[in-house]
Amino acid sequence: MATVFRLSSGNWRVQIRRKGRYISETFRRHKDAEEWALENERRIDRGEAPRTSSVSDPTTFGHLVDLHFSDMKEVGKCHQRSKVFSLDSLKKRLGMVRIADLTRERLVTFGRDRAREGAGPVTIGADLGYVKTIIAHAAAVHGIAVSAEPVDLARIALKRLGLIAKSQARDRRPTQDELDRIFNHLERSSRQSIPVARIARFAVATAMRQDEICHLLWQDIDATNRTALVRDRKDPRVKTGNHQKVPLLHLTGYDAWALLEEQASISSRNDRVFPYNGRSVGAAFRRACQELKIVDLHFHDLRHEAASRLFEAGLTIQQVSLVTGHRDWKMLKRYTHLRPEDLHRVVANPLFDKRSDPIEFSSNLAQLPKPAIPSNTSLPPPAHEQKSAI
Length: 390
Description:
Distance between the termini: 64 Å
Radius of gyration: 28 Å
Largest sheet: 3 strands, antiparallel
CATH topology of the largest domain: hpI Integrase, Chain A
Structural class: mainly alpha
CATH architecture of the largest domain: Orthogonal Bundle
Shape: elongated
Mean pLDDT: 82
Number of helices: 17
Helix content: 40-55%
Strand content: 5-15%
C-alpha cells in the first residue's frame, strides 16, 4: 500500500511497500505523487521493475531523452559534448511532442523546418539518427510501446526531397608552401605562447588528432622502440580503453622523434608532452590561416595530409593503419588523397614493396635512416621516476 505525506518543505513524499519491494519518491504536486504511486503499484503487481519519478509515465519525446540520459549515466557511459548538444537541441524542438505523435509526417515536417533554419543535409540526417537512437533505447531497454519505423520512412522521404545526404569526404591537402607559410607565421608571432607550429608539424609526422597530441604523456613515450602510446584513441565502437602504440617516424617530411626532443626542453617537468588546450591550438591555427588568406584548411586536414604522405612514402594500407589507428581499412581510404605524380616515386622506392606483408613493417622500419639525436638532450624519465627523484 502506498503512503503519501507532506514534508516540511511543502513537497509530497511517497512510500510504497508491496510484495517485498520498497520504493519512495518526492514530488512537488500531490497529484503527481498519487499517479506515480498508482502506476508503480500496478507495475509491481505485474512483476515489472518500478520506475523513478524522472521516467515515470513517459508520454513525450522529451521524457524519452531524459530516460536515455539517466540510463547512460547510471551505467557510467557519459556522452561526448557534441552528442549532448545535439540531444539538447532535439529536446527543445521535439521535446513536447507526444510519443504517439512521432509519426512520419511529423518527422518530415521537422526535417523541412530544420532545412529552412539553414541546417544542411548531413546535420538533418544526424538529427534523425539521434531520434532513432532515443526511440530504440526506450523500446529495447524499457519496453515502451514506440516504433522506429516512422523515423526510417521519414528518412527515405527527406532523402528523396534532397534534404538528407551523406557527408562528402574532404580532399583538401595543403601545399608545402602553405605549410611553410603557416609555420613561419606562427613562429614569428609575438603573441603566440603555445608552440603551435611544432604541434602542427608533429601532427603531420604522426597523423595524430589535435586532442590526442595535447593529451600525450611523457610516461607513454618509449625511447627504446620510438613509439608513443595514444590513450583512449577515437573509435566508433570503443569509447574508452582504446589504447594504441604509434611509431614515431620520419617519413612525411617531419621528424616526430626530433620534435619530441625539442619539446622536452620546455615541458619535461609536466606530465603531458604538449600541456596545452586543444581548442587553443585549433584557434591559433585557424587564425594563422585567416591572416595568411589560406582558405578551407582545418587542423584536422593535417591528419589527412600525414596519411597521404605515408602512402606516398611507400607504406601499404596495413602499415599506414598502424600509424593512423584505423581498424577499418575502408575508412582509411578516404584519407589517402594521393597525387598522381607521386606514384612514380612510390614505385621507384626499393624499400617498400606493394606485396609486402604488414608483419614485415618492423624490419622495414629498421632499414630506414634514423634521425640524429643530439647527445646533450634526452627525453624526461617517466612521471613516477621524476616524483621519486624530488
